[in-house]
Write a structure and sequence with these properties.
Blueprint lengths: L10 H5 L8 E2 L2 H10 L3 E6 L4 H11 L2 H10 L1 E6 L4 H15 L6 E5 L5 E5 L13 H14 L1 H24 L7 H19 L16 H14 L4 H19 L13 E2 L7 E2 L2 E2 H18 L2 H17 L10 E2 L2 E3 L7 E3 L7 H7 L2 H11 L29 H7 L4 H19 L7 E2 L2 E2 H15 L10 H18 L1 E2 L4 E2 L2 E2 L10 H18 L2 H18 L32 H16 L2 H13 L1 H6 L5 H11 L3 E6 L5 H9 L9 E4 L5 H9 L15 E6 L2 E2 L6 H8 L1
Parallel strand pairs: 1-3, 2-3, 17-18
Antiparallel strand pairs: 2-4, 4-5, 6-7, 8-9, 9-12, 10-11, 13-16, 14-15, 17-19, 19-20
């Protein structure tokens, strides 16, 4: 019989609906049951495309004996971390403090008032290899709860007090803040030095295995290069670190050469053997890295890299109505109609499969270029579960020109044939059982993808010329989906996710921050003031719901959520950037656009709230460092006055995107529609900017609170920009 998770919408929770464990979803019913029965809560947190979550589910949660222990002694609660990131962050903070590491599945034991007293991540179904099995832990905790409950309760109180004290101490460390110019500059230098010293010149990326495509690291290095000058030695070195990393990622097994897009991370230092799940947030951020690297270098290969990502997302993650799904799983069935499954099964190839799919010459080209071997190409030490025996992960072994020389082909012929061969392989692969698709729409992650598409829509890369309008339209459709399905206009609040209708959870700080960032980029891609107006309204709601009036910065969760025992502020730019880092940048951008001093002050308050972290370990907050850069510069604006649909307007706007440089807020003079009238009232300074007397489009470049004489040609604008 299904448990209570059968009534949920989350794909992850539904994966556990048939478990013999009497799971309950996170919420009042579960909390009331724990209090009424005087039982501890067993909390299990994961997500639907998590490989080790699947392993623990199969080994333990489908096991009737283990389920019997859980059902007798505990109230078992399942949480989808993607639906409730606030819950996940509280208990992840505890597990990391307790064990020194974290990850999913996250397992925690709580008192009925939700305070943790024991935790970890994956537990095997029996004692083995020096690891205590889940049944042993369950029995020990059940015994301790029955015989020494006061000690466990006291430990839970100590834990929360300790975590509270720790986070409050981090706030108080900020103290009397040194001058931001001096301390911010020092943090920039320390972070740059850290990445330079940890850069893997052979493989790209930073440090050793495992390697994650942590996009904010690359974004910071590009900004550092721009500040120092991309032609200076340090500037060139910064760009080189980014370019090499992206090239190695794109050539490695981390990249899906057949279907496009990128997997979540690689288990080795060379980006060869990935953990095969694909996340929407990674696709969006990697695409932005590629676009910005193209802008800094002019190298079209990076624009093609972004195009590869967008091709995948628009084909395989596009939801009806315009939004984007969350992720694809790492695991899949080995064959239709059979239960056996393995990680990466959808993506790996035997040599004979390639030879059967392609003409002999094309198969030889593919095998030579991607290192395909008859016996498989994955070393034993990188195949801990033996899932890749005889299989090949495609990884570019040399530049295509070298492959072409080896096969006595002209480079352009080799490129054309390789592209055609990969398309044939994609068609063949589509007949395999696809990995599970997590078809939730998450507001925050869609905000990241709206940003990426909007930036691509204004890119000056030649290879994107024929698809820019399509990217702009896709970004608009995604924003309209969020506005239609995940926004309560009467209350002004966002909701977190959509699947078969709007989810129950209202948005968290990251949903607001990422979507606002996406809307600001969308405004600059369309110059439709409705997006700027919505971003401004959402920022006000974010301020009301999440702002820490005492210490500054934004909490992850709302103050009125009774299920949250500790309100935290995200202070690490990891796989996803901290909402504080993104919000600081948003506020500074809107301050420059709207001449809003209050927004700037709130941005500075957010930066100061996390000073203890970025001053001590600036490499942990590279996205925040980019906001600090923006705060240290006086606002710059370019206002283009005239018909936004005209070729002259587009020509001037394109000049602003030709090369990396100082950050500039870009606006169009307000239109006559409702949103235009709002913008005219919100930014009355724009009234001074008008087209020429003959209606000719003109650009006004404003710096240091004054505007230069308008220009009306691309060449003149380039001259003014310098």
């Amino acid at each position: 019989m299904p448990n209570e998770l059968a009534h949920e919408k989350s794909p992850y929770l539904l994966q556990h609906a048939a478990n013999p464990v009497a799971w309950l979803p996170w919420g009042g019913a579960a909390f009331a049951k724990a209090r009424a029965e005087g039982k501890p809560v067993f909390l299990s947190i994961g997500y639907s495309t998590c490989h080790w979550c699947h392993v623990m589910a199969h080994e333990s949660f489908e096991n009737a004996e283990i389920a019997a222990i859980l059902n007798e002694h505990f109230v078992s609660v399942k949480v989808d971390r993607e639906e409730r990131p606030d819950v996940d962050k509280v208990y992840m903070a505890y597990v990391q403090a307790m064990t020194g590491h974290g990850g999913w599945p996250l397992s925690a034991w709580l008192t009925p008032d939700l305070k943790p007293f024991y935790g970890g991540t994956y537990f095997p179904p029996e004692d083995r290899h020096g690891r205590t099995g889940l049944p042993s832990i369950l029995r020990a905790i059940a015994k301790a709860w029955a015989e020494d409950r006061e000690r466990l309760v006291a430990e839970s109180v100590r834990v929360i007090d300790s975590l509270t004290e720790y986070h409050e101490s981090r706030r108080s460390e900020a103290g009397a803040a040194p001058d931001l110019h001096d301390s911010g500059g020092e943090a920039f230098e320390k972070a740059y030095q850290y990445f330079n010293e940890n850069f893997d010149a052979t493989n790209g990326g930073f440090g050793g295995a495992p390697k994650f495509p942590r996009a904010s690291n690359l974004g910071f290095l590009l900004r550092a290069a721009v500040i120092q000058g991309v032609e200076t030695e340090s500037g060139r070195e910064g760009v080189k670190m980014v370019a090499v990393t992206l090239q190695k990622m794109a050539g490695g097994g981390l990249h899906d050469h057949v279907g496009g897009g990128f997997h979540r991370y690689s288990v080795d230092e060379a980006w060869f053997v990935p953990h095969f799940e694909k996340m929407l947030y990674d696709q969006a951020q990697i695409a932005v890295n590629a676009l910005e690297t193209h802008q800094a270098t002019g190298d079209e290969r990076f624009a093609w890299m972004a195009r590869d990502v967008f091709n995948y997302v628009l084909r395989d993650l596009a939801a009806p109505g315009g939004a984007f799904y969350s992720a694809e799983d790492a695991d899949s069935l080995l064959a239709h109609g059979k239960p056996e499954h393995a990680e990466g099964a959808f993506y790996v190839w035997t040599r004979s499969e390639i030879e059967s799919a392609l003409e002999a010459d094309d198969a030889a080209l593919v095998c030579a270029h991607f290192g395909v071997a008859a016996e498989g190409n994955v070393p034993v030490q990188l195949d801990s579960h033996g899932e890749f025996t005889g299989k090949n992960i495609l990884m570019q072994r040399q530049p295509l020109a070298a492959t072409a020389r080896g096969l006595e082909l002209a480079p352009e012929v080799a490129a054309e044939r390789l592209g055609a061969a990969l398309e044939v392989m994609r068609a063949v692969r589509e007949k395999r059982p696809r990995p599970h698709l997590d078809d939730k729409v998450i507001t925050a992650w869609n905000g990241l993808m709206i940003s990426a598409l909007a930036r691509a829509a204004v890119s000056t890369a030649g290879c994107l010329a024929d698809v820019r309008d399509g990217y702009r339209a896709a970004a608009v459709k995604a924003a309209e989906f969020i506005e239609r399905e995940l926004y309560d206009a009467k209350r002004g609040v966002l909701y977190r996710n959509f699947r078969d209708g709007r989810g129950a959870n209202e948005g968290f700080a990251e949903d607001y921050a990422y979507l606002i960032a996406g809307l600001l980029d969308l405004y600059e891609a369309t110059f439709d003031a409705r997006w700027l107006r919505w971003a401004d309204g959402l920022q006000q709601v974010m301020d009301a719901l999440f702002w820490d009036a005492e210490h500054g910065g934004y909490f992850n969760s709302r103050a009125d959520d009774a299920g949250i025992v500790l309100r935290l502020k995200e202070d690490y730019d990891g796989a996803e950037p901290s909402p504080n880092s993104v919000a600081a940048g948003n506020l500074l951008g809107m301050s420059a656009m709207l001449h809003d001093d209050a927004a700037r002050e709130r941005a500075l308050g957010t930066i100061e709230a996390l000073r203890a972290q970025w001053a001590k370990a600036p490499h942990a907050l590279p996205e925040m460092l980019c906001a600090i850069e923006r705060a240290l510069e006086l606002p710059r604006q370019v206002v283009i006055a005239g018909d936004v649909a005209s070729a002259e307007f587009r020509e001037l706007a394109d000049v602003l995107r030709e090369k990396a440089g100082p950050r500039r807020a870009v606006l169009a003079t307000p239109g006559e529609d409702e949103a235009g009238r709002w913008l005219a009232g919100r930014a009355p300074w724009l009234a001074e900017m008008k087209p020429g007397a003959d209606g000719r489009v003109r650009a006004f470049v404003c710096e240091r609170f004054s505007c230069q004489a308008p220009v009306d040609t691309a060449e003149a604008l380039r001259t003014v920009l310098g």
